[in-house]
Write a structure and sequence with these properties.
The chain is an alpha/beta fold. The chain contains 15 helices and 26 strands. The protein binds methylmalonyl-coenzyme A and adenosine monophosphate (AMP).
Length: 490
């Protein structure tokens, strides 16, 4: 396989990464990350404390250059989730920006700083880094590149082992679909511990030899500023596009900036047609959607040279085989815009396994095809429309996948909670909002919503906190004693 990052190997002087006033060219990144890689090399696995900073990008690239699998960790993860991730993935080292205080379980590991303050000036590279030093030899394509944790309906998150081959395949398929080149400058504000922000949003531009400007935190002002000063592409989750759609009416500069973009891409959840239409009306530009999953990386997209169609996720990417399967397990032949089936995929973009979970890995496949759990129909010309999801206990909020069971387990440990159920409710901004249904231990003294949100936030990632808490005298149950969530949702 060619190197994962040819522009680094070639020492390109084009801009690569920009986070606020910190920036590195590909050549500078090769130097800084190469030096760090030399210190990481040989470690079995490394965790990266994935703040939305230049240091995170450098740390991940360094691990990839060293051929050491990297586990990006959400810095807003709570104690239970973090303990699980660290125990499950057993990193030998943690990479974090200098000065960042790590929680005890990570603070106990050997630590390397990803500090790059002193390389913002191209001529001032750290003493340890030798610009002439060759990068380590490229590992095998099947070697694990990243382990990304993702929620299931029950139990703790699973570590998705992504080989280098999948990263390269998905990014090259997107090069084709989006005509993505080294001249593209991407802007985004996505978190760096998931596929969308890290693999597409950071590794994507690096593989193309282009550049990315990360906003640190999402805001329409930052989007407008970057798109009107040279950025060509925007990646975001639907919540971000929704906020853009809301802001457009009173912000002609934002409309002008979006109008000048080459490509506006949404993913991680469905972008409502209403937001598509509002953005198109105000900017004259169409957002395109792509569909992916942590386990599969990207599967489909509306192509840059294709017809944009709101409400669809486009066509299968190069190299990706996609089929729809009915309840009996039979493949659906129809491209009729109405027959619904589960999306199953096969191709070089797929993960290898769930870490330490052979049972879950086996259950995820149907005769070599990965079962996505997403339900879809196909238009006659092959455009895929996602219409729902098999698992009712998975919530997508702000583009984050969240398992109801994981939150319920934590809520049940609160002394003031007798029974708990978690559902997702439609939310204009977040797509779905987490709702906790609580039967208090003492009816006259229920724990407050703030207390329960804080309780969940202490154990799990902060985006898993319930936004709404509703109190009941009893949860609706069927004859078997199973909670009837449909009755809760009304
Ligand atoms: C949230 N807050 C709360 C609660 N919930 N406070 C109290 N109680 C709660 N229940 C806090 C937030 O933590 C935040 O605080 C503050 O409220 C305001 O939140 P805000 O920034 O307005 O919004 P947000 O809701 O926190 O974030 C919206 C977002 C975010 C920026 C769109 O959801 C996001 O970054 N989403 C991206 C998800 C993503 O990348 N998914 C990719 C995975 P504070 O500021 O202190 O934190 S899917 C994937 O990778 C696949 C492959 C794919 O297809 O892409
Ligand atoms: P995750 O497991 O967090 O990687 O999220 C993957 C899931 O996000 C998929 O299985 C889909 O349900 C959903 N998803 C991603 N992109 C889209 C999209 N463009 N439209 C609808 N759903 C999407």
């Amino acid at each position: 396989m060619s190197p994962l990052f040819p522009a680094l190997a070639a020492g390109s002087t084009r801009p690569a990464l920009q986070f606020g006033d910190q920036a590195l060219s590909h050549a500078e990144l090769a130097t800084v990350a190469g030096a760090l890689a030399a210190r990481i090399a040989g470690a079995p696995r490394v965790a990266v404390w994935a703040t939305p900073t230049l240091g995170t990008a450098v740390g991940v690239v360094a691990a990839l250059l060293a051929g050491v699998p990297v586990v990006p960790v959400n810095p807003k993860t709570g104690e239970r989730e973090l303990t699980h991730i660290v125990t499950d993935s057993s990193p030998a080292l943690v990479l974090a920006e200098r000065g960042v205080e790590l929680p005890p379980i990570l603070a106990g590991l050997a630590r390397l700083d990803t500090d790059v303050d002193h390389v913002t000036d191209a001529t001032d590279v750290p003493g340890e880094a030798d610009p002439a030093a060759p990068l380590p030899a490229e590992p095998s394509p099947e070697a694990p590149a990243l382990i990304v944790y993702t929620s299931g309906t029950t139990g703790p998150p699973k570590g998705v082992v992504l080989p280098r081959r999948a990263v390269a395949a998905t990014l090259d398929a997107l090069e084709d679909a989006w005509q993505w080149t080294e001249t593209d400058v991407l802007v985004h504000a996505l978190p760096l511990f998931h596929v969308h922000g890290l693999i597409l949003g950071i590794l994507g531009p690096l593989r193309r030899g282009g550049s990315v400007r990360h906003l640190g935190r999402f805001g329409t002002d930052g989007v407008a500023r970057e798109l009107s000063s040279g950025a060509t592409m925007l990646f975001g989750v639907p919540t971000m596009y929704h906020r853009i759609a809301e802001a457009l009416a009173g912000d002609p500069a934002l409309a002008k900036a979006l109008n000048g973009a080459r490509l506006l891409v949404s993913g991680s959840a469905a972008l409502p047609v209403h937001d598509h239409e509002r953005i198109a009306a105000a900017t004259g530009r169409r957002v395109i959607e792509r569909y992916g999953m942590t386990e599969t990386l990207m599967n489909t997209s509306v192509r840059a040279d294709g017809e944009p169609r709101a409400g669809t996720v486009g066509v299968p990417l190069a190299g990706v085989e996609l089929r729809l399967v009915d309840e009996t397990g039979a493949a659906i032949a129809a491209y009729d815009g109405e027959t619904v089936g589960e999306i199953q995929v096969r191709g070089p973009n797929l993960f290898t396994e769930y870490l330490n979970r052979p049972d879950a890995t086996e259950a995820a496949f149907d005769d070599g095809w990965f079962r996505t759990g997403d339900m879809a129909i196909r238009d006659p010309d092959g455009y895929v429309r996602i219409v729902g999801r098999k698992a009712t206990d998975l919530i997508k909020s702000g583009g984050y996948k969240i398992g109801a069971g994981e939150i319920e387990n934590v809520l049940l440990e609160h002394p003031g909670v007798r029974e708990a159920a978690v559902t997702g409710e439609p939310d204009e901004d977040l797509g779905e909002r987490i709702v906790a249904w609580i039967v208090p231990a003492q009816a006259d003294a229920p724990p407050s919503a703030e207390e329960l949100a804080a309780h969940v936030g202490a154990q799990l990632a902060s985006h898993k906190r319930p936004r709404t808490v509703r109190y009941l005298a009893a949860l609706p149950r069927n004859d078997m004693g199973k909670i009837m969530k449909r009755a809760l949702r009304g």
